[in-house]
C-alpha cells in the first residue's frame, strides 16, 4: 500500500516543481494510452498521473511527506470518508487536461489529430443503353478525383524538407486555456489553429500540391458493368475513389447506372414490354409479324382471332438476371387498330361482312363493372 510518489516519478525527495513537471511530462508521453494502449502501461500511467497530482500540489505534497497518502481509499486520506478525492475525478482530470486536453482519465485523452485521412468516395453516373444494361458492357468513364501528388509522393513537403513539430501546441495538436474557478482549474481546449490539430506543420510546402499531398485530376478508367443492372443500380468499386489528404487511403467509387429510355422496350424487372399494333384484318385472319428484340428481329405468329390486350410472350428474350443465370422474357402487347376513314368500296365490303356475320344491328355485350378493362390491365402488367 505504501506508495512512493517520488519513486514513481523518478525524482529526488527535494525535487523542485520544475523537475517534477519535467519528469511527469517525460513519463506521460511514454506511457500515454494513445501511444501504449496495453492495460499494464495504462495502470502505470495512472500511477504516474496520481504521483504528479500529489507532488505538484504543495498542500498534498506536504501531507504526503507527513505520511498521508491522498489516494489511499477509505483510510486517513485527505478526502476522508468514501475514498480519497483523487478517485472522484476532477482534480485528476484537470491534470490530464492540462497535458492532453479533452476527455481526461486514462481512457479519455486525445492525441494530435490524424493528418492522414481517408479520401472521399465518388459518385459517377454511367448512362447506358438498354442492351448494355441487359447484357453488360465495358465502359470508359471520366470523373474528377484526387490522386497522390507525384512530386512529393503524398508527403506535402518540398523536396529535401520535412514536417516540423508545431511550435504553437508543441506537437499536441491542441491548445488549452486554464481559468481558475472555485471548483479548481477549468480547462478549455481547442484544436491548435496553427496546425489544424495535426501537431506538425509544413514550413516548406510542395509547390505542386500546396502541401496537401494530393492533386485533383480528371481521370478516365474502364469499368466493367455486369449484365442485368438497371436504372438506379449502384456498383461499388472499393478503394478506387479519391486519395485522402497527406496520402491517406482512397475512398470508394459508386457507379450509378442510368438507363436511357429505349424507343420500343420498357423494362419491368428483367422483363421487357412492347406494344405491337396490328390492323383489324390481321387480328381477325392471323398474321406473321416481324418483331424487334434485343437479339435482332424475329418472326412471331399472330393467331387468327387475336384481340387487343393480348400478350405474346417470348421466353428468355428479356434482360439477363443480375448475378443469376437466365433471362427475363419479352412480352408483346397486341393492340388491334380499327380502320377509320374508309373509302366507298371498303365501307361497302365491311357492311357486307357485317351482314354476313349478322352484326349489322349489334346488340352490344355488357359485362359487370369494368371487368374487361381490368383483365386487359392485368394482361398488360405481366400476368401470364
Ligand atoms: Zn506534392
Ligand atoms: Zn499546433
Automatic annotation (TrEMBL):
Binding-site positions, Zn(2+) 2 = 166, 169, 192, 195
Q: Which InterPro entries does the record associate with it?
A: DnaJ, DnaJ_C, DnaJ_domain, DnaJ_domain_CS, HSP40/DnaJ_pept-bd, HSP_DnaJ_Cys-rich_dom, HSP_DnaJ_Cys-rich_dom_sf, J_dom_sf
Q: Where are the zinc fingers (CR-type)?
A: 136-218
Q: Which GO terms describe its cellular component?
A: cytoplasm
Where do the CXXCXGXG motif repeats start and stop?
Answer: 149-156, 166-173, 192-199, 206-213
Task: Please name the NCBIfam families in this protein's record.
Answer: DnaJ_bact, PRK10767.1, PRK14278.1
Q: HAMAP family from the xrefs?
A: DnaJ (MF_01152)
Role summary = Participates actively in the response to hyperosmotic and heat shock by preventing the aggregation of stress-denatured proteins and by disaggregating proteins, also in an autonomous, DnaK-independent fashion. Unfolded proteins bind initially to DnaJ; upon interaction with the DnaJ-bound protein, DnaK hydrolyzes its bound ATP, resulting in the formation of a stable complex. GrpE releases ADP from DnaK; ATP binding to DnaK triggers the release of the substrate protein, thus completing the reaction cycle.
Question: What name is this protein filed under?
Answer: Chaperone protein DnaJ
Q: Which organism is it from?
A: Actinorugispora endophytica
Amino acid at each position: 500500500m505504501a506508495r512512493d510518489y517520488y519513486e514513481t516519478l523518478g525524482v529526488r525527495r527535494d525535487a523542485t516543481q520544475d523537475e517534477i513537471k519535467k519528469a511527469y511530462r517525460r513519463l506521460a508521453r511514454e506511457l500515454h494510452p494513445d501511444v501504449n494502449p496495453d492495460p499494464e502501461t495504462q495502470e502505470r500511467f495512472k500511477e504516474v498521473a496520481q504521483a504528479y497530482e500529489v507532488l505538484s500540489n504543495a498542500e498534498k505534497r506536504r501531507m504526503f511527506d507527513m505520511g498521508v497518502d491522498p489516494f489511499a481509499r477509505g483510510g486517513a486520506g485527505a478526502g476522508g470518508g468514501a475514498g480519497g478525492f483523487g478517485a472522484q475525478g476532477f482534480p485528476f482530470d484537470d491534470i490530464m487536461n492540462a497535458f492532453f486536453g479533452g476527455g481526461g482519465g486514462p481512457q479519455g485523452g486525445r492525441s494530435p489529430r490524424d493528418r492522414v485521412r481517408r479520401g472521399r468516395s465518388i459518385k459517377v453516373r454511367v448512362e447506358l443503353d438498354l442492351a448494355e444494361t441487359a447484357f453488360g458492357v465495358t465502359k470508359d468513364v471520366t470523373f474528377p478525383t484526387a490522386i497522390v501528388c507525384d512530386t512529393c509522393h503524398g508527403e506535402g513537403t518540398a523536396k529535401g524538407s520535412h514536417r516540423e513539430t508545431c511550435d504553437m501546441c508543441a506537437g499536441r495538436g491542441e491548445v488549452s486555456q486554464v481559468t481558475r474557478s472555485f471548483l479548481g482549474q477549468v480547462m478549455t481546449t481547442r484544436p491548435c489553429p496553427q496546425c489544424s490539430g495535426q501537431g506538425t506543420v509544413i514550413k516548406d510546402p510542395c509547390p505542386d500540391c500546396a502541401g496537401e499531398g494530393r492533386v485533383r485530376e480528371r481521370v478516365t478508367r474502364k469499368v466493367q458493368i455486369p449484365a442485368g443492372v438497371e436504372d438506379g443500380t449502384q456498383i461499388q468499386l472499393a478503394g478506387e475513389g479519391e486519395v485522402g489528404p497527406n496520402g491517406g487511403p482512397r475512398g470508394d467509387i459508386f457507379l450509378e447506372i442510368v438507363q436511357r429510355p429505349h424507343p420500343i422496350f420498357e423494362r419491368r424487372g428483367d422483363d421487357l414490354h412492347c406494344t405491337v399494333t396490328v390492323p383489324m384484318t390481321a387480328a381477325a385472319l392471323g398474321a406473321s409479324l416481324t418483331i424487334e428484340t434485343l437479339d435482332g428481329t424475329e418472326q412471331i405468329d399472330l393467331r387468327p382471332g387475336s384481340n387487343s390486350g393480348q400478350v405474346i410472350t417470348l421466353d428468355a428474350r428479356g434482360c439477363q438476371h443480375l448475378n443469376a443465370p437466365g433471362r427475363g422474357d419479352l412480352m408483346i402487347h397486341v393492340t388491334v387498330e380499327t380502320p377509320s376513314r374508309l373509302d366507298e368500296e371498303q365501307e361497302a365490303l365491311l357492311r357486307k361482312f357485317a351482314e354476313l356475320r349478322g352484326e349489322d344491328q349489334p346488340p352490344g355485350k355488357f359485362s359487370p363493372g369494368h371487368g374487361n378493362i381490368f383483365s386487359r390491365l392485368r394482361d398488360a402488367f405481366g400476368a401470364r
